[in-house]
Amino acid sequence: MDEVLLYQVFGETKLWARLMGISYVGDLNEKVESGEYKDIIQISEALHEKKIAQIADMITKQKKRIILISGPSSSGKTTFARRLIVQLRVNGLEPLYLGTDDYFVERSQTPRDEHGEPNYEDITALDLELFNSDMNKLLSGEEVDIPTFDFLNGTKVFGRRITRAKAGHPILIEGIHGLNRQLTEDIPDEEKFKIYISPLTQLNIDEHNRIPTTDARMLRRLVRDYLFRGHTAQSTIRAWPKVRRGEDKNIFPYNGEADVFFNSEHIYELSVLKKYAEPLLLQITRQEPEYGEAVRMLKYLQFFKTIEDDSVIANNSIIREFIGGSIFV
Questions:
Q1: The whole model's pTM is what?
Q2: CA angle 57-63-68, nearest 5°?
Q3: How far apart, in whole angstroms, are the C-alpha atoms of residue 321 and residue 329?
Q4: What are 253-285's pLDDT values in tens digits?
Q5: Given phi > 0 = left and psi -120 to 50 = alpha, else beta, which region is 282?
Q6: Count of alpha carbons within 13 Å of 311, Cβ hemisphere only?
Q7: Distance CA 55, CA 84 (A)
Q8: What residues contact residue 283 under an 8 Å CB cut-off, 6+ apart?
Q9: What is the DSSP string of 212-257?
Q10: Is 12 helix (H, G, I), strand (E, B) or coil?
């Protein structure tokens, strides 16, 4: 990532933590025990909203049309995109929202990985020619038949979303390849605004031990996979190395292309996620290959006091994408 941008993000992250009076897990635990955590939740949510509004103002001022949103797994991309749309509408714009998943090539043309299995995360799994053609038509005000991908039959379906973008209004595109120039190589660079989103953990256990951002993302995914996708904690942990390899190939090498970095982490979230994740991790037995990783995650969750009542979390919060109750997901 661009060093100046990264420096700004770290500075902003420290400022947010200082505003809430939390530098270490112990500080957060004190807020949980005293009941002050409800104020922390509201301040953290307000900081997110303010930042999203600032990004919307940048897009509006610069008159950008193609807004590309990317980030690693469990970053909260969908909720962020929906909230950005709200802020752009506050600015008088009418954004069009698209996902790159509808531009998958026909399943028979999907590239294969080293094991001969379909590789849906590779950029060549997308119909880049059609995507670029459609985006340029939208930019020029033409009516476009946006495909809807039928995942059951493995084919694009047309005729369901015939639309056009209003002149001067932005088109939001969410997908893991958003920052890869190959995705939008036929679209003029001056039209693009690129956003990288990821949780950047603000908390330290002590002066020498920091909560890894990767672990925080895996806990988000573990809870969401169980609640909404019918997956066990074992299956999420088992799949995580493959997810990380895909991120190393398709996402992280391109984060230097970003115009802005949105830190989607909430300083309070591990105290909330603990209530959901701990019982799932405890179900993994010593005989299972994922046991060691489960024990490791449980050990550092022990440092956190649990927020039992999360009703104060707003229904448009990014954390709601993982624990439920979201108006967006």
A1: 0.95
A2: 80
A3: 6
A4: 999 999 999 999 999 999 999 999 999 999 999
A5: alpha
A6: 1
A7: 8
A8: 232, 233
A9: -HHHHHHHHHHHHHHHHH---HHHHHHHHHHHHHHHHHHTGGGGGG
A10: helix
